[in-house]
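call fold(seq) -> tokens
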Amino acid sequence: MGEKREFAWLRSALFVPGNRPDRIEKAVQTNADAVIIDLEDAVPLSQKVETRKRVREKIATCGGKKIIVRVNALHSEFGLDDFKEVISNGLSGVMVPKVETPSDIRQIDAIVTEVEKKVGIEPGSIFILPLIESALAVENAFAIASVKTEPDRFFSLSFGAADFALDMGIAITLSGEELIYPRARLAVACRAAGLAPPVDTPFMIDLKDRQALEADIRRAIRFGFQGKLCIHPNQVEICNQLFSPTEEEVAYARKVIDTFEKAEAEGVAAIQLEGKFIDYPVVERCRRILKMPGLK
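ret:
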């Protein structure tokens, strides 16, 4: 298997109902790094079949926007046909809810590969973003993240706290203490498996409470998440801002890389810069910072 491709960062991924084409158009015009067109929870059972066809047509009109479709669960009555209908040119990835085992990923990969070949898309082009949203899924996070596919198909993990809390019989609070374990487990699982950092759960307690949203984002950053799922356009900008490095961090990263590369050329691999110890891991983190979206 070849070396993994670089995963495009998702600081913000905005959900929009698949049965609301007007909202899809508005979502595409936002600064969200990706738009997730939802075929699952946001679409009534009576509209799921007709909605998936309209979504396929809509994908082709979204220009260069990164478009992800959240299909229905793999083992639901709608899941398989969702994959067959929406995988098309212009689609970046599929978000799959209720993934709980490595076997789920292997089945999803086989289905996506088959459809890619059928519609003339290079196999491996469509990434998979599994939603981890149950106790079993959290416990299996590393095993799920460790699945290798051929051809190499890029994916990371995303966290769905609402269904996780339902499964556990607990309530989600502003402090977020009840989500410490699953967040930590997902972040560690992705890193240990060599994946991009995971994408955090939406903040749903109070859409008007910007201060609480900011606190929730900062918690996700401390755990090592790359971005956050958004359920309202007013959540996008703050996610983009906080999940991006500051101007000072960018300037320092560039200085570290420049100074280290000069030292390395002279046969030195550990230096001090402004009183701080610099070695290969520090330099690699600085390089990752400079690969993040929104940088000039």
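The chain is about 45% helix and 15% strand.
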